[in-house]
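Why should sequence recovery work at all? Because a backbone constrains its sequence more than one might expect. Tight turns favour small or flexible residues, buried strands favour hydrophobic ones, and helices have their own preferences. The token representation captures these environments compactly. In the example below, the structure is given first.
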């Protein structure tokens, strides 16, 4: 338990780095007081003989005095100064963050609007049928009848008999358009029934 809650200022007089302990002496005293490395601040610095320290004094289990809760006064002031600097820097940077926040909000809003526009366009494209292209909208003209070329070039050339015809179609054209034909003996309108037009549906 603590012998006193009073904090003393002093110096590190001796230090054994291999064993991790040494002795401190208070400013107004000459009695060496045991100090262990575990009581020093964990700031990464090794104890150095002659450095200024502040400490409390307590008794160990055998009733001997030892230093406890060791501090480095200069290090405390330096740490406090660094903390003050960080706080001041944070205070100066705060307006910059607040100034950048409206830009971030506008950017997010633009992204949201663009996403809605793309979604609406995709839905509209799915519902509207595609517009036919010029090549698709052209309606094919009906193919000319097989006998059109023959009719366009047909003329009565004096042939009158079935033996002079090349097909049933030609015989019908001559019978229909030329006078004096001798290809329909029974006058039923079907020429060359025995040679070319065998049957009523012969073409």
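From this structural description, the recovered sequence reads:
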């Amino acid at each position: 338990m603590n012998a006193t809650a009073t904090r003393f200022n002093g110096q590190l007089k001796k230090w054994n780095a291999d064993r991790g302990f040494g002795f401190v002496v208070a400013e107004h005293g000459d009695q060496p007081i045991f100090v262990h490395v575990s009581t020093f601040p964990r700031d990464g610095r090794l104890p150095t003989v002659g450095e200024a320290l502040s400490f409390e004094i307590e008794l160990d289990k055998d009733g001997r005095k030892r230093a406890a809760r060791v501090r480095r006064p200069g290090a405390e002031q330096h740490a406090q100064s660094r903390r003050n600097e960080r706080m001041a820097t944070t205070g100066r940077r705060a307006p910059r963050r607040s100034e950048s926040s409206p830009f971030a909000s506008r950017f997010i809003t633009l992204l949201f609007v663009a996403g809605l526009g793309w979604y609406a366009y995709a839905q509209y494209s799915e519902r509207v049928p595609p517009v036919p292209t010029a090549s698709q909208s052209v309606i094919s003209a009906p193919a000319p009848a097989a006998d059109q070329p023959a009719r366009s070039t047909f003329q009565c050339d004096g042939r009158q008999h079935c033996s002079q015809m090349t097909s049933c179609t030609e015989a019908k054209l001559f019978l229909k358009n030329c006078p004096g034909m001798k290809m329909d003996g029974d006058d039923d309108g079907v020429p060359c029934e025995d040679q070319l037009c065998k049957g009523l549906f012969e073409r």
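A few observations help interpret the result. The domain at 7-75 is CATH 2.40.50.140 (OB fold (Dihydrolipoamide Acetyltransferase, E2P)).
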